[in-house]
């Protein structure tokens, strides 16, 4: 056998590497328990109980506040230990008193938080519960089967559709009304998260969904006239409030003429082909760059950061893959879409956490 035909030799780890690898494999294999422990904490109301207890609570305090059997205190201690290690909660040096962290601050029940925010929905509880629901777990469990299946073109189902027969937002009959409502609310708070920061940090940029963002812009910048375009079934019954104009329609067919069009956390739901169609309609709707026309996109740019932020972007990409035909995109992907839709230039205005604000110029 020629040297070039020989199979490459396998790298054999040392004893120390073997032990380290074993621990690393355990961590990856069991990391789902971090998500499910978080789900348990939210279901029990642990962050809200700590908040209502003045921002710090002991295990006996929590057992009392949550109406748990006292026999569960040792088990609660073990749950809290993982939550602290994961950064979801904090504790004192003795590990007897627990406090909220910036992460668990967003898991306090919205009614209990009493913190004014632009969208009125600070709590990310619905997104946590929707993302860790049995429907999502069943979808992940069936992912290998989805990969093996040779679906007919041109519109293969998402993994979620393959497992459940419907999309997360499509049918309450198959998912049940409570689960369908949870997915709707989870998507809404995910889309709205961080928008108050966008308004504060990108005031020069502003000079979907249910109109929450448009109303926030109109309130922050009264001189800006805001119009929300959505399907008739979504905005047809929305009462006029004199602040935001609601226009029923389909963005694939027509977008009302505007100085600027904003696409907030929505293009990742769509395939590249559909994104190009949407962007082409946006280009028709806005004036040239010389006349200050632009399209404002708020979405993830994969690779815009590193470390945990990059990991969150990659996880979100797989999450999108599970439930839609879209994807999260890196800067090259975005540039390719803009050019194919006929735009001349773009600029990443600001990085805000895992998302970016992008201006696209016709």
Automatic annotation (TrEMBL):
Keywords: Methyltransferase, S-adenosyl-L-methionine, Transferase. InterPro entries: COMT-like, COMT_C, COMT_dimerisation, SAM-dependent_MTases_sf, WH-like_DNA-bd_sf, WH_DNA-bd_sf. The keyword Lipid metabolism does not apply. One of its GO terms (biological process) is methylation. The keyword S-adenosyl-L-methionine applies. Residues 158-344 form the O-methyltransferase C-terminal domain. Residues 26-108 form the O-methyltransferase dimerisation domain. Pfam families: Dimerisation (PF08100), Methyltransf_2 (PF00891). GO terms for molecular function: O-methyltransferase activity; protein dimerization activity. PROSITE patterns: SAM_OMT_II. It comes from the Eukaryota. PANTHER family: O-METHYLTRANSFERASE (PTHR11746). This is O-methyltransferase domain-containing protein. The lineage of its organism: Eukaryota, Viridiplantae, Streptophyta, Embryophyta, Tracheophyta.
């Amino acid at each position: 056998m020629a040297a070039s035909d020989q199979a490459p030799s396998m790298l054999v780890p040392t004893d120390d590497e073997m032990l380290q690898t074993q621990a690393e494999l355990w961590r990856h294999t069991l990391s789902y328990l971090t998500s499910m422990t978080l789900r348990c904490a939210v279901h029990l109301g642990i962050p809200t109980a700590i908040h209502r207890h003045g921002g710090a609570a002991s295990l006996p305090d929590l057992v009392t506040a949550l109406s748990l059997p006292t026999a569960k205190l040792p088990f609660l201690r073990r749950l809290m230990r993982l939550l602290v290690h994961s950064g979801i909660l904090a504790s004192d040096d003795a590990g007897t008193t627990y406090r909220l962290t910036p992460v668990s601050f967003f898991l306090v029940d919205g009614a209990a938080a009493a913190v004014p925010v632009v969208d009125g929905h600070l709590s990310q509880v619905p997104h946590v519960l929707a993302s860790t629901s049995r429907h999502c777990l069943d979808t992940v469990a069936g992912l290998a089967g989805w990969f093996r299946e040779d679906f007919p073109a041109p519109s293969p189902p998402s993994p979620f559709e393959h497992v459940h027969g419907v999309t997360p937002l499509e049918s309450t009959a198959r998912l049940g009304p409570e689960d369908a409502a949870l997915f709707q609310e989870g998507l809404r708070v995910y889309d709205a998260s961080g928008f108050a920061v966008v308004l504060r940090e990108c005031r020069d940029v502003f000079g979907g969904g249910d109109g929450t963002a448009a109303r926030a812009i109109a309130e922050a910048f009264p001189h800006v006239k805001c119009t929300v375009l959505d399907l008739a079934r979504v905005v047809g019954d929305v009462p006029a409030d004199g602040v935001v104009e609601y226009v029923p329609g389909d963005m694939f067919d027509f977008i009302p003429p505007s100085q600027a069009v904003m696409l907030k956390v929505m293009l990742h739901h769509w395939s590249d082909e559909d994104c190009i169609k949407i962007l082409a309609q946006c280009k028709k709707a806005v004036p040239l760059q010389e006349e200050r026309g632009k399209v404002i996109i708020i979405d993830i740019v994969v690779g815009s950061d590193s470390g945990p932020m990059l990991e969150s972007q990659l996880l979100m990409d797989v999450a999108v893959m599970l439930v839609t035909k879209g994807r999260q995109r890196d800067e090259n992907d975005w540039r390719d879409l803009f050019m194919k839709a006929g735009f001349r230039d773009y600029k990443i205005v600001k990085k805000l956490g895992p998302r970016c604000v992008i201006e696209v110029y016709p």
